[in-house]
Specification:
The complex is a heterodimer. Chain A is mostly helical. Chain A is 71% helix and 2% strand. Chain A has helices at residues 5-27, 31-55, 64-83, 100-122, 127-146, 173-196, 198-208, 210-215, 220-246, 256-269, 276-294, 298-312, 316-322; strands at residues 87-88, 93-94, 157-158, 248-249. The model of chain A has no long low-confidence stretch (mean pLDDT 93). In chain B, helix 3 (95-102) packs parallel to helix 6 (133-146). Classes of the chains: A mainly alpha, B alpha/beta.
Chain lengths: 328, 228
Amino acid sequence: MSISRETAINLVLALLLLAVPFIAMQLGKPFYVTLATRMAILGLAAIGLNIALGLGGLVSFGHAAFFGIGGYAAGILASHAFSGQPLDFGLFAVPGSKLMPVIWAVAILAGGLLAAAIGSISLRTSGVYFIMITLAFAQMTYYFAISWPAYGGEDGLSITIRNTFPGVNTLVPQNYFLICYALLVVGLVLFAVLRDSRFGAALQASRQNEVRVASVGIAPFRIKLAAFVISGMITALAGALYADLNRFVSPSMLSWHMSGEFIVLIILGGVGRLCGPLAGAMLFVMFEYILGGLTERWQFFLGLLLLGVVLFARGGLIGLLAGRARHG
Amino acid sequence: MKLLEIAGLETFYGASQALFGVDLDVAEGEVVALMGRNGMGKTTTIRSILAMTPARAGKVRLGGREIQAMRPHRIARLGIGLVPEGRRCFPNLTVAENLLAAARSGRWNLGEINRLFPRLEERRDQMARTLSGGEQQMLAIGRALMTNPRLLILDEATEGLAPVIRNDIWAVIRVLKAEGQSILIVDKTLSELLPSADRCVVLEKGATVWSGRPDELTPSLQDRYLGV
């Protein structure tokens, strides 16, 4: 079986990320494990956005809302588990949880519900209006979090001890990295399966021409909404992982900078490409670490890099290495 | 039994009226030619059947069910497959993806389409935008068939194609007719269209002015309604 150049590059990227923590431990620099975990989580969040943006052409400038709600799901459940007080919903109360699978399920569900609500309104618009309306919704969640004192308001919410996973000591950085890495791989597989399915073909077709899609019996709105919801769910899961990595959630996870960062990751790596988000996340975190150590104004150089990519390498890093996208 | 029934269809583009009362029907297994000079409302009629330009007055029934208030994708799903004017494929999807996106279960599937158009099989992983005009037209027909429509609508399916390709497309239309596929067809090549059609409907200034069998469409009528 021959593999394409892009597949080879994807494999190299994935293996490279997997190797970082082990090399870091050999070198006695455990901090790099955290960096690699951050790459995996941001990569996963951007994979979520890549479904909406890369396949569906939906430029969502509000994915921080899903990232943040995932983070808050983790923070809130953990804080209730820690204090022993159940979450009070008025009619009923549920206990908090320190179990990651439970937290992930809640984060995914919350992200999906929020995406369904935001999507069902935003997807009635397109183009620049879609960008602005998703931004507006995300800013609403941001200000809601700031003004909600029960969970820290502007100060955010700490997770006292990292949440647990059955049979794994999550306090060991490499273990937590492996959990995040495994979910990243699941995200990549899901993206590939979706892209190559009938759903994926219809989604990409509706990006190209809605009227033509309707004429073959596909409802463009529904298919985009489904994509937007799946996209929000994946990004929310990444948010829960991010909260556990930092053991801290704050409204900054919901801010528009975060939404912009996800878009930047995808553009850096390659829009619509399977490993574009991962490549973008690895590049971004590396850039942030190396240049951030040299100058406080590292984002100026990130801007230059982004400019270079947009002007000279439209396919991002993956496009540069593997050639033009199959889907232009 | 009538598959498609249209009565008194009136359609507007903004303030200007394009259709002033189109009457048309297609029976099961029938091939109906929709004729008329340029600008007489043929494409608008097709757009109104699929509610892409919704009609303001009149009725459209498919299999006895009123469809004029439905949205385009619902109508398509009820069984109308459109091959739009100008071979409109999804340019940035591969041939196989173009077909797959439209697929609905029934007689027509990838294998059957490939048998009908062997060229599409050869090009299956190529982007639609890289196909020749004739191949794109085959793809557009294949995509419409993949929805397994009860009624296939062909809007100028052979326009602007090389004669060889044109003949291939007409051969396919004859195969579909022989299989009992109901077809509503708009085309300018009368020499091919008339022998293939069971009935003709002529539009003038947005209204139905004549309908009958192809052999009743005498040269003088052709000159009156279709001549330039």
